[in-house]
Amino acid sequence: MKTSQLDFRELLSFNPQGGVIRFLGQRAYLVDATAQGLQRKEFIDAFGPEMVRTIVTRSAYAHGWRVAETVKTELPEVWAEAKEGKLGPMLCALYGFGEIVSSRRTDGLGDEPLVETVLKDSFEAEQHLMLSGGSDEAVCWRYTAFASGYVSRVQGREVYFIEDSCRAKGDDYCRIKGRYLEQWGDEIKPYLPYYQTKNVESICAELRRKLQATEKRLKHYQRDMAFLHNECEEGNCYPVSRSSVMQKVLDFAWLLAEVDSSVLITGESGVGKERMALQIHSRSPRSNKPFLAVNCGALSETLLDSELFGHAKGAFTGADRDRIGLFEAAAGGTLFLDEVGEVSPSMQVKLLRALQEREIRRVGESQPRKIDVRIISATNRNLQEAVASGGFRQDLFYRLKVIELHIPPLRERTEDILPLARCILNALTKVMGKNVTGFSHQAADNLLCYEWPGNIRELQNAIEYALVLCRSNQIDAEDLPAEVRNSLFRPTAVSGIRSLEAIERDYILSVLAVQGNNKARTAEKLEISLATLYRKLREYGMMDR
């Protein structure tokens, strides 16, 4: 599970009838920003800005510290990314401090700050401007202190943030910079009295003890935890394109929608070939005309002949009236031929003639009828091999495959698995009348680790299976089918297993070698900072290379 896969809706848990709301497993209550702004103004008017800032700073620091502690204990799979600085900005956005414009992270040991984050639409600056007007000083006290507490806990060292730009004092954005205490020098001294670190640490320790006790008492409340963002309408779970590989497929598909060429969609069973064909049709100039589909592999030759071309009255026993076929019924629209690789040789001849001449003859008739349809076909077979072996006509193959669109299997685009799963879950819960809103950490990991040989169709079946067994508001690993449940690797106590550090070392040095010892490109490939790469190389004694 990655930070980028966290989903706000599954971090939030609440009873629809009201009462208890929980976010990140902690009990929460809703209060609008204006109410908070009014409260802060009243406190300042009554007690003065210095005292109020101290109280806000201490409580926000403790809040940030607690959130980091919760992430470590409840979301251990993203703790490593939290230490790399990938989670903090997202949490600030999820808690509603404002929209993160940019966030930069270094090792914090040089002149550059450890963290520099730019925020727009800060709720604190907004409320201050609305209720008190402009300010000579930065006013995002809660945001700055929350970041200080959170990053201090994550880093295991004292880290403090200072806001050097703020909307309330006329700047375009609010910007905070965080450094280790010893890196700040004298610049941090005026701000330290607001924190009184020793008192805050004792408060945090007490809060942790109370939190643990509360968790035991409220064990029956379960957080909804799964992953980020992909809003879908009911039943519309396709296409999902979090992965770059699928996005390229969709970009190509939308180009194909603008032309009228025949398209051959290839891919394994269950990847969504018919849904892709429908998407192409719905974006094409033919979208206001019918989209009709037929599974060529599911019908006998006689039935398929009648289904595609229609028949005249009396053409065969039981043909008591004229019947138009799909080629005519789809006039002006799109005809989708699924499993086209399964059609018989004689049917291939009829299809070829229909595509070449743009006309068909109903079964039992000699009169040709003009047709106006776009053909989109699909197969999970390798038709080129079938052509080479004589099982499929080469001329028909090239008629169908004016343009080929290949849909990759789920195992090659794992970034799409969880968004698809959430989308399918949303649709099925409405159909089945179940109040299930997400997946547990373990269930999500199972979904990610399974290879899905049946692709999206198998994923949908697995989630429907899990919904039948699920007895809470969250699908757990035990609810999933056995083959999915057993997909996670479980290490055994055997000798000779290499340490994680050794594997990491070999991997980093291999990437460095592939990149021709170019450290900047290596850091980019590894998705780590250049400073982190240099630190690793120093640990390996490789800085002379």
TrEMBL record:
Superkingdom: Bacteria
GO terms of molecular function: ATP binding; sequence-specific DNA binding
Coiled-coil regions, chain positions: 197-231
Keyword Nucleotide-binding listed: yes
Gene Ontology biological process: regulation of DNA-templated transcription
SMART domains cross-referenced by the UniProt entry: AAA, V4R
Residue span(s) of domain Sigma-54 factor interaction: 239-468
Keyword terms: ATP-binding, Coiled coil, DNA-binding, Nucleotide-binding, Transcription, Transcription regulation
A Pfam family: HTH_8
PROSITE patterns (alphabetical): SIGMA54_INTERACT_1, SIGMA54_INTERACT_2, SIGMA54_INTERACT_3, SIGMA54_INTERACT_4
Alphabetical list of PANTHER family matching this protein: TRANSCRIPTIONAL REGULATORY PROTEIN (PTHR32071)
Protein name in the entry: Putative sigma54 specific transcriptional regulator
Annotated source species: Trichlorobacter lovleyi (strain ATCC BAA-1151 / DSM 17278 / SZ) (Geobacter lovleyi)
Lineage per the UniProt record: Bacteria, Pseudomonadati, Thermodesulfobacteriota, Desulfuromonadia, Geobacterales
